[in-house]
Amino acid sequence: MAAWGRWRKAAVVTAAAAALTASTLTACSGTAAGQVDYVVDGALSSYNTNTVIGAASAGAQAFARTLTGFGYHGPDGQVVADHDFGTVSVVGGSPLVLDYQIADNAVYSDGKPITCDDLVLAWAAQSGRFGGFDAASQAGYADIANVECTPGQKKARVSFIPDRGVVDYTQLFTATSMMPSHVIADTLGTDITTALLTNKASVIEQVARLWNTTWDLKPGIDLKRFPSSGPYKIERVLDGGAVVLVSNDRWWGPKAITKRITVWPQGGDIQDRVNNRSVDVVDVAAGSSGALATPDNYERSDSPSAGIEQLIFASQGPLAARPARTAFALCTPRDVIAKDAGVAIANSRLSPAAEDAVATADGVAEAAQFNRADANAARTALGGAKLTVRIGYRGPNARLAATVGAIATSCAPAGITVSNVTLDTSGPQALRDGKIDVLVASTGGASGSGSTGSSSMDAYALHGGNGNNLSGYANPQIDGIIGALAVSADPAERARLLSEAAPVLWGDMPTLPLYRQQRTLLMSKKMYAVSRNPTRWGAGWNMDRWALVQ
């Protein structure tokens, strides 16, 4: 109940902020420009940010106010209740039972009503209960026993498995997590909700295939398949991958202040675009675009994200064996890499979103031998064998290029040859396809933060069978600890679980944490209501309140 109280309080704070935005515009005696240009971390490859590829993309930064839900992630990463969309009520605590009520006037931009069918699809796709769905994470959804939904209605009852009362349940069914189920139902010409709830395998297979691919973004998309449930809707996809959002005239809540926002994937031209004033908001990983000078008519703020920049090792190839991963970690100069980023080394794998003492202490003792490069220890761990390792990252990215360069220099004396692979496609896909042996990325393989804002949810990136467990790591003890963290709010118990996990994870080395990814938010001094966000939704969490004052 405490979590629910914090959620409601956050909603009040955000409502006040929205009112302040309006008064600020009035005080400035200005009017909002009709167009804003917004640059985000990675590619905009899918409208569905819940697939492995979609979750690692910049889609969440772009579509937080296009695909709404029962909550969204505010400026501190907290979940804020979105009462325009609907309400959530706790009707049982043991087991946890929640009632979700969608607003009566909630409708997609194509005129179709938003219904409980959309919750059923979101749960089915992300629960791990049904095969075929390429979902990034099962966190929270795997603990739902069933969803009661009468097709076409606006109310759903969600019951959790006994003793699996997920502490961060407000993270479920939030912005960008629910896709328009009627698009798939119309394509198949059948009631997919009943098929899912009755486990009709032949239909579910088709539903999964469509959920994975229907919402891929490319120029010339059929807009009928991309309806919006928020203040913005997609107008078109440009050559080069930018997505143009325009105000949704069927949105039933407060209208978007800026009528058109073009979301641009990060490229090598950000400095030029800032210099010629052709971009208004830049929300990217700090250092990814080099020094990024700030002209007088812009302002800049740097802040920590909730995601951890890390090395994610492939399950096949030269680093498939644990001794090879250990050797690679031993010659990786984490101290040099963190210093280049201007931050401390990060050690935590299972409490990445937290900034508390537990997260800071998690794994410190076990991590000590991996803080500074030790080529001799690495060579010994390899038994004198030679390795060639391909490290990839989404480019261009000046900071990660420097990271790979530092690793290459440091590991060469250990007999490890490192090659730099700049990717223009999805990092997770390159790792899956065996095109690289290591991916340098944030939580879940993301170019941006990648974090949900919840350590318990983020920890599932190392849970066996989870989509964004890119290293394919499987350890029953760690699975049990991750599951226990999800249902425990007791700090002492969480500290015990983390201390139990640390030596196992440092021994198995499925990933190597480097540092907390820092964020750079650069914007025109004429922009109002733009604020940082440490989660994967980034500054776009409230883009419908943005105003470029003329």
Characterize the structure shown.
This protein is α+β, with helices and mostly antiparallel strands and 550 residues long. Among the domains are: 68-212, Dipeptide-binding Protein, Domain 1 (Dipeptide-binding Protein, domain 1), CATH 3.90.76.10; 307-517, Roll (Dipeptide-binding Protein, domain 3). The chain is 31% helix and 21% strand. It has 18 helices and 18 strands. The strands form four sheets. The protein has a ten-stranded mixed β-sheet, sandwiched between helices. Strands 4-5-7-6 form a four-stranded antiparallel β-sheet, with helices on one face. The longest helix has 27 residues, at 2-28. One of its GO terms (molecular function) is peptide transmembrane transporter activity.
Give structural attributes.
550 residues; alpha+beta; Dipeptide-binding Protein, domain 1; Dipeptide-binding Protein, domain 3; 10-stranded mixed sheet; peptide transmembrane transporter activity; SBP_5
CATH superfamily membership of the domain at 307-517: Dipeptide-binding Protein, Domain 3
The geometry reads as globular
The fold-level CATH name of the domain at 307-517 is: Dipeptide-binding Protein, domain 3
| Count of DSSP-assigned helices | 18
Q: Regarding CATH, which class of the domain at 307-517?
A: Alpha Beta
Number of strands: 18
Protein name: Solute-binding protein family 5 domain-containing protein
Keywords: Signal
Domain Solute-binding protein family: 97-456
InterPro entries: SBP_5 (IPR039424), SBP_5_dom (IPR000914)
